[in-house]
Amino acid sequence: MTVAQNYRVAGTVSDKTNRERLEGVNVLLYVGKEKKLLKFTTTTTEGSFRMMIPDSLTGKGYLQFSFMGYETLRKNIDHEKRWDIYLSQKEMTIKEIIVKAPKVRVQGDTITYDVRLFSKEGDRSIGDVLRRMPGIKTNENGQVSYNGTPINRFYIENSDMLEGQYGLATNNISNKEVGSVEILQNHQPVKALEGIAFSEQAAINLKLKEGAKHRWVGTLKSYAGCSPDEGLWDVQGVFMRFNKKRQSMNTFKTNNIGQDISKELNSFNLNALKNQGRLLADYIETEPPFSMGLSRNRELLNRTYQVTTHHLFKLNNGQDIKVNLVCQRHKEESAKEVESIYYEGQNEEWSLDEQEKSDYTKKSFSGTVTTEMNKPTYNLTERFQVSLDWKDRSISMGGNQINQQDMYTGSKKVMNELFLLKRSGNNFVTFSSYAVFQANPQNLHIQGDNKEVAQTVNPKQLFTENNLGWGIVVGKVIIDFTGNFTGMYKDMSCRLTGLENSNISDRADMSLGYMKLALTPKLTYMTGPFKSVLAFPTNYYLYHYKNFSERALNHDCFSISPSLYSEWHFSSRWNLYVRGNINKQAVNTQLFYLSDILTTYRTLQRGLTTFCHAKTAVITGGIEYKIPLKEFYSRLEFSRSWSIIPYVLSQNVEKGYIFSKFLLDSRQIKRTVISGNLSKGTDWASTTFSLQVGWSKNISHLFRNEKTIQNCLTQLYLKPEIDINPAKWINIQYGLNFSGESLVINDNESKESAYTLNQSLLIRFIPSDKLYFSIKSEYYSNQIKDGNIRNFFLTDISLTYKFSDRFSMDFQLVNLFNEREYSYTSFSNEAMRINKRYMIRPGNLLIGAYVTF
Question: Main location per UniProt (predicted)?
Fold first, then answer.
């Protein structure tokens, strides 16, 4: 949090004659004899405005209200907090002029992109346009970032209906229905914290065109086609409506053409991301892996059905009610060959060859109800969610071992989240509560070599975290204290049958619980462009473990984990920041169990039964430089971390199985990361250029077959992209993605390296307003085992004929040369080299219709 000695000015602006509220009135704060513009805002659709004004400016400036067709009004600043402003109409004579709209506008902390000026032929969703806007990036899983930092909210007409699942908006809202995209820098989503709590993250707000409001809009798509293996389909219907009192988005999608529509359901809600690590783990590896460096739609052999419905209701008392339902059935097939090389030092190694064919099915349902009251002095938000997931996977395995595997996990989760804040003058009180119950039964059945092996794991967990805080503003300083109570209880039973080995613990019934009491004093200081936050969390943990066949174990721990964050905006273009923390971590409860669990057909993992606390220290620093009006953004960041972990992974090979366990031996992990990004837009040929670079180094060690293996993994990536229109009838998009890795074992005793290089070129020809066609080529050059280079060349062709702006026919030919395999080599920080060969989608032919309404 960051603090300022401010007071709030709020009110409405109306027409003096008919008393109707006015939307879009400019409210500008001028100070000093030179009449310097300090802040500005505009009135909302209800004609209201609010602005935080430094107390020191009282009597030294004025607010100016201006609106086309009305007399300009000025009013001196005083301590009056509620203003009702009435503007008088005036006659205007407007000369004929030619106005060229700017692509980017800046108003205070809000940057506005004109969607029409960033759109190009072939764009169909607002996500297509967002990827072209300087400063905005969308990664492979759908997360949106602004100048390298993930956003904290995605609004549609100032409302957060989707609650972090904004992939539904970026992929389904037509860019033709959106007038502008607003970047709300340093966005504070809780209104009661405006002016006293600083946010590092931005938000995105979609401003729809007037014609897209108050009526149903959407898209319909129906494609059919064929491949050498099966008939193809891609069908979707999207129905949306947005108005002042209600918002609704409903989708139905199904396809078997490799489109991973489940990415739309990824949630980037900050609380959901924070709480993800508190959920039960999948001990049995049911989820199928996917290839690195290759687009998901190139390899996914799927049959997916997905239905979503999201609704937002705005009540007259200012309360929002949100109801979200999601249902999905996803099935995919995969075929791959994997060679895993395990290094042992002294130029020794052993390998494992696998040939796998698998069928994977996932069925899921989730329902969420949220109520939110977000007012300038009060916030009450409660969220209740039920989610169910069933995952089945069947594998036919060849190679060193031949077997048939069947896996299942079935997660059931009930969650409730509450947040309450009350602000009164310079004081505020907060309360938050998070509670979740989860059951996640899992089983693995293996049949081969004339024997059957079965593993069952049945964990259940109840977790709760509660915080109570109080804070006060004193000048330029805010002091606040937060008390915390956290509790967890987990019950787990494990059974392993069919393996005859006296060293295996094949049965366990256990319970584990802990309680945490914490007090966090925090001091925040802000003066002008400088902000700093210092916190001293003080934690006490009390653990209790019971294995029903042995005695109970108890453990307690006390820790202080200081942290510091500072930033300095030494100009409107430059920002320098640094953060650091020292932390004694809680016990990893997911690893705490006394048994051997067969996580895959070949790997037995033994848990920890000693209470161990890792210690970490992290320092991060970065610098940002941006000129929004010139469409230029850049960021460079450095991070260094040190971890001391009191246990070490140990692996031994015996009778075809990898026995993994943890030894009580301290190890140090050092990690260094350097990353940067740059983006630039220009009116010349409507060009957008972006560059992402990164380098990391990870040093660690482990034991393998009683030998110490020190390993150093270094990774480098480089990703430039350019989008250019050299003429009105042609658009060119080029991207390069280079990733290199090197693994050093025992200080240069053994060294391996590999790289993947992907180049993508899309050329879109637009010979007329009715017709355009595209050629897309992807070239892959991957260094694989023994230093060999594997080259791949994939080509797609598409043609679109537009009968009108709302109706078009599409023809697509995907993977023209019918490439069927993709190979690459990668490394892990467990001293391994992995050579993989995947079967990818064959050539596809599709034809269909696309309609917007």
Answer: membrane
Dist. CA 713–CA 95, nearest whole Å: 67
Structure tokens at 92: 């205007």
The Cβ of residue 439 has, within 10 Å, a number of other Cβ atoms equal to 15
**Sheet with 61-66: strands ordered across:** 36-42, 26-31, 61-66, 73-76
Final residue belonging to a domain, choices 87, 110, 142: 87
Report the alpha-carbon distance of residue 206 to residue 227 in Å, rounded: 38
Backbone angles phi, psi at 175, to 5 degrees: -65, -20
User: In the predicted model, is pLDDT for residue 2 greater than 50?
Assistant: no
- Alpha-carbon span 179 to 191, nearest angstrom: 25
Residues 19, 20, 21, 23, Cα dihedral to 10°? -140
Q: Number of structural domains, the chain?
A: 2
Element (H, E) at 190: none
Q: Which of 87, 106, 124 is the last residue of a domain?
A: 87
Chain segment 806-829, per-residue pLDDT in tens: 999 999 999 999 999 999 999 998
Residue 419 one-letter amino acid: F
Cα separation, 535 vs 521, in Å, equals 6
User: What is the residue type of 808?
Assistant: S
Residue 634 resides in a domain: yes
**Among the listed residues 679, 737, 694, the one whose alpha carbon sits nearest the alpha carbon of residue 295:** 737
Rounded CA-CA distance 367/165 in Å is: 13
pLDDT tens profile 515-560: 999 999 999 998 878 999 999 999 999 999 998 766 788 999 999 9
**Type of residue found at 268:** F
Domain extent, residue 46, equals 6-87
Which of the 8 DSSP states describes residue 840?
A: -
Tokens read off for 300? 């996914």
What letter would DSSP give residue 766? -
**Are the C-beta atoms of residues 694 and 720 closer than 8 Å to each other?**
no
The domain that holds 623 is classified in CATH as 2.40.170
